[in-house]
Each structure stands twice: as C-alpha cells, then as structure tokens.
Amino acid sequence: MTMMIKLNAEDYTVKKAETVKELLDELDIQMERVAIELNLKVIKKADYHITPIQDGDSVEIVSYVGGG
Asked: In angstroms, how far is CA 34 from the centroid of its own chain?
C-alpha cells in the first residue's frame, strides 16, 4: 500500500512505512540525528516507532548539524 504525504513541503510517495520510524528507515535516515514534526506537532524520539503516518500527513524532518 502506498500513500502520499508532504515531506519537508514536497510531495512524497510512501512505499511501505506505516510509522515515523519506518519512514526514517525507508529514507535511510538515522533517528538519533533528527527531530520530527508530524502535522505541526513535535514527536518524541521514544514515540517514533508507535506514531503512525497516514495519507495526507505533513512530515518535517530536521537534521542536527554539528560544527564549530
């Protein structure tokens, strides 16, 4: 089953993911290095694996950047 979401303000077709964690896996993104906002609500890392994504959702992924 595929669904369409907005991913960082761009249309994205989700292939298999049903949760935030599975979406990160699908995108090959390490969950430790990002913050996630789902439909304008920040999601706790501990909840990534239980937070469902649905057709039409808006997901913002922000990566941490280190440096100095």
From this structure: 9
pTM above 0.85, yes or no: yes
Residue 17 near residue 45 (C-beta atoms within 8 A): no
Q: 48's torsion region: left (phi>0), alpha (psi -120 to 50) or beta?
A: alpha
* Start-end of H helices in 1-68: 20-26
Phi, psi of 57 (to 5 degrees): -65, 155
Query: What whole-number distance in Å separates Cα of residue 53 and Cα of residue 21?
Result: 10
For residues 4 and 53, the answer to whether their CB atoms sit within 8 Å is no
pLDDT tens, residue order, the chain (68 aa) = 689 999 999 999 999 999 999 999 999 999 998 999 999 999 999 999 999 999 999 999 999 877 76
